[in-house]
Amino acid sequence: MRIIATMTTIPSRIDGIRPVIEAVLAQTVPIEHIELNIPYTCIRTGESYAVPEWLESMHRVQIFRTEDYGPITKVAPPSFAIRTTTRPTFGPSMMGGRPIRAKTYVSVLHAM
């Protein structure tokens, strides 16, 4: 099973996020990688995000720049998880007519 952790941060915490990332990657259940969704601008404060160079080069951390959707930004695009049943009870418009723009994970673990 693939386990991908997703997270976001706010501008005032981004410089101190390294211990959090290291703790997530050191779990006894192996995490494949972290998808770190970093908005261009924080909607709460209007501040821009400055991504530290060390963060951009961290192994097993994928950074995605995005809009700020509030707390849901931790699971915002490019991640897209779909949970379905094994019974064919849904039609072709299950996604509301929107195309799937990114990866689809069969198994998703979110610790919130």
Helix tally equals 2
For the record, the count of structural domains works out to: 1
Beta content comes to 15-25%
Distance between the termini: 20 Å
Class based on secondary structure composition and strand pairing:
alpha/beta
At a glance:
This protein has helices at residues 18-25, 53-56; strands spanning 4-7, 33-39, 61-66, 80-81, 104-105. By secondary structure, the protein is α/β, with parallel strands linked by helices.
Could you characterize what this model shows?
The chain is α/β, with parallel strands linked by helices and 112 residues long. The chain has one domain. The protein has 2 helices and 5 strands. It has a 3-stranded parallel β-sheet, with helices on one face. A two-stranded parallel sheet has the order 4-5. The chain is globular. The two termini are 20 Å apart. Mean pLDDT is 78; it is low at 97-112.
Topology:
Layout: E1 4-7, H1 18-25, E2 33-39, H2 53-56, E3 61-66, E4 80-81, E5 104-105
Key phrases:
single chain; 112 residues; alpha/beta; three-stranded parallel β-sheet; 2 helices; 5 strands; 11% helix; 19% strand; disordered C terminus
